[in-house]
Amino acid sequence: MLYFKSRNVSFLILAIAASVSSRLVFTYWADPEGPNLLVTTGLSVVVFVLTLAAYYSLGRLVGLTRLLVALAIQILLVVGVAVWGK
Question: What interhelical angle do 37-57 and 63-85 show, nearest 10?
Answer without folding.
Answer: 140
